[in-house]
Every structure is written in C-alpha cells, then in structure tokens.
Amino acid sequence: MLTKHPRIPSLPASHHFAMSLTPVHFFSHGSTMMLGEESESADYWKKCGDEALANGIKGVIIMGAHWGCSGKNRLEVAMNPHPTKSPVAYVHPSKYVDYELVPDLDSGRKCIGLLSAEGFDVHANETLEWIHDTYLILIRMFPDWCPPTTIISTNVQYDPHFHMRAGTALRPLREQNYLIIGTGGAVHNLYRNVWGPMLRYSDNFAQETPPERWALDFRQAVEDALANNSGPALRRAMTRLMKHPHFRDAHGTDDHYMAAVFVAGAAGSEADLGTTGRLMAETWELTNMCNSQFTIGQWPKTSQTAT
C-alpha cells in the first residue's frame, strides 16, 4: 500500500520572486533517429544538460509521450529500481544499449506525495521499461552519465487541464533544484509525415518538398503561445491550442502534446509572470514533423558549480 507523503510547503508568492528557480524545458523528441543523427536540436539538448550539471541539479523529473495509464484521475510514477530499455528502431544499438539508467526512487516518492496532496490518484509503477522518448533525451543531454531521474506518466484520457495541473503540483520541485522536462512534440503527426527518404535511405532530415501549410501554421501557434504568454496566461494559451483549427492536422493523436501542457503547469504560476518561453533550436524531420525546443526561465547568472 502506498503511503501519502506530506506536501512540500510553498513560500508566499512574494518570496518566490527572490527564490532561485530551475528552468523548465519542452523538448520535441521527434523520431527515433534523433538519437542517432546529429542535429541542431541534439546540440541544444547537450547544452541544456551541461548547464544543469554545472548548476548541481538534484535530479530530473520528466513526462514523456509514450507511457500512459488508464483510469479516472490516475497517474503513475516510475519506481522500477532496475529498469530496462525498450528497443529503438532505426538506431544502432551502440547508441543506447550500454547507457546506464538511474531511477530516482526517493524523488519518485516525493512526486507521489506532491501529486497525491493535489488530489491525483497516483500510484507507483515498479515494472516500467523505459521508452525512447525519455532516455533519448537523457542520452543526448547527459551522454557521460544519467542523473537521478523520475518519470511521470500521462493519463490516456489526454485532458490538457489534467496534465497542466500535474505540472502545477510538481512546480515546487523547481525550488529544490530539480530540472522539469516535458518531451513530446510541437508538430507530431505520424500519419502525415513523408516516410520515403527515411525508409529508403535512412535520411530523416530529407526535405524534398517544404512542410505543408498546416504544419507551419501550428508550429507558429506553439511558438506564439510560449513566447508571448507567462504565468496563468501561459497555461491558458497552451491548453487552448488543442482547439486550434490545425491541431488535429499537427497531432494525429493527443499523446505528444500532453508534455507541453505539463510544462505550462510547471512554469505558469503567478510567480512566473514575466518569464516567457524561448525557442532555442528547431529541427524538421520527415517533411512535416517539427521538433521545436523551448526553454522557460534560466539559470541564475551567479550560480556556481556544485561540488
């Protein structure tokens, strides 16, 4: 039986402005080939990892797109002490098989406590096999060693407000030097990608024709929502995008967008007013898949490397 942990106390809003907060990342992980091929996005992921290590993070809290649980109000937290990796298509095994995963069970229990205190039906999952959407990002960010990591599931009802509230519940961890990441996709519709160059030539970056108008329009809508809103307005903007006329074109299924609203929850409180998202890198794949990389917030310029 799971025990409920006390919620980490929050300081008054006036204190949050003076408090150091870790940045939050929304990463579009793209196809599996993003693990094996070099790109501007991969370079940015590595830069973010270097900065996180230089600032002595306690660990990583990450929500991906490929692990979802069913049940009303239910979330799961990865608590497998010895997770394996699911195989990755189109990537040579040498790129990932020997990378040692480091699950953070103590921080997992902390996440369970925070989510439970906010009314989520949250459970430990002690058998999860980690999937490429999370360990692809970890390998690219931290190629030498994996920091302690906790994975949060999605809920397969894919309610954006539900996932936004999950990010909100975990926001206090930013005050404790945890790095919160959502890994999904800005434009990620497998049904509308152009697969020929990848299947014939293993070239996921071939752009024989420009992206279609719907992909460009929704990509711009995501950037506008993140770059032009902060605080609660950011949360509203990101959840509202699921009503955009091109949302279903850009997302054939809802799973890869939940990471975006999770991030908006973690970086969209009243204390985050004035801190907007920044588009830091972008990689188009398969003609119509847009892998945009966003960061909300930044590391304190006066921070020092942990000893």
TrEMBL record:
Question: From which domain of life does this come?
Answer: Eukaryota
> Per UniProt, what is one GO molecular function of this protein?
ferrous iron binding
Keyword terms: Metal-binding, Oxidoreductase, Zinc
Tell me which positions the record assigns to the signal sequence.
Answer: none
> Which coenzymes or cofactors are required?
Zn(2+)
Pfam families per UniProt: LigB
Please tell me whether the keyword Hydrolase is annotated for this protein.
no
Domain Extradiol ring-cleavage dioxygenase class III enzyme subunit B stretches: 24-273
Q: Does the keyword GTP-binding apply?
A: no
Indicate the family of this protein.
Answer: Belongs to the DODA-type extradiol aromatic ring-opening dioxygenase family.
Q: Specify the protein name.
A: Extradiol ring-cleavage dioxygenase class III enzyme subunit B domain-containing protein
User: What organism is listed for this UniProt entry?
Assistant: Penicillium polonicum
